[in-house]
Amino acid sequence: MISMIFMEAKKLRRTGYFPAFLGGTVLSAAFPLVHMSVRSSTFTTQSGDPFCILTDANWQFMAMLHLFLVICCTCFMYSTEFADNGAQKMETLPIQTGRIFFGKLWITMLCTAGTLLSETAALALCGMYWFSGYSPRLSELAKNYGFAFAAMLPTVILMLLLASVCKNMWVSFGIGIILMFTLSVFPKDSLLLSLCPFVSPYATLAALAEAGTQWYFLSACAAEAILFLLAKLCILKLRRCFA
User: Fold this and answer.
1) Rounded CA gap, 62 and 32, in Å?
2) Which of 82, 136, 139, 189 has the most other CB atoms within 10 Å of its CB?
3) Contact at 8 Å (CB) between 44 and 131?
4) What is the mean pLDDT of residues 167-180?
5) Total-model pTM
């Protein structure tokens, strides 16, 4: 699997995937810095945990940027696979096509983890700079970071699944954009609706912990991720049967 990840990474160097992810990460992490520099007095006068205040104020836009980044980059990943019938040629080689998908998934997960780490660090730095006496606890940052990754994972897998079954990159891109903007209007205070892919990344640990539903949410996200992976395995088997 490690060799497959390195091989996929080499292919992605020609697509602009890594510069795009890096640029999106910088933009998303810079948003709370810009937001606080303009409206710091609005948030510093509020009572409560500074990290939660900053998350509530910035996470919706940051999550939207991250979602858009995932949609674009997963489409980039498979654009080279389908170019010049590359995917069909790969099926004639002694390579399991499922390993290609999981190699791309590992790369996307690692890039997503890096983006979320930058976003979490940016929020913590804003709290330290604008809230006097605030010292973030590493355990709390780790919990929020892990929660954000778990909330993003089902959407990442589903978007990569869509990109892998659509030969035209613009079809999967259009589906992702439509889902992102259509599902984003769902009310975030409903646990059931917040579990939908493309909606779950907007959830925050503090809000769910206040309602006592964080473990239900995490369990449902894990179930969705497993379900989408099983769906991909079924698609691979069907392709072999009808190829």
Assistant:
1) 8
2) 136
3) yes
4) 89
5) 0.90
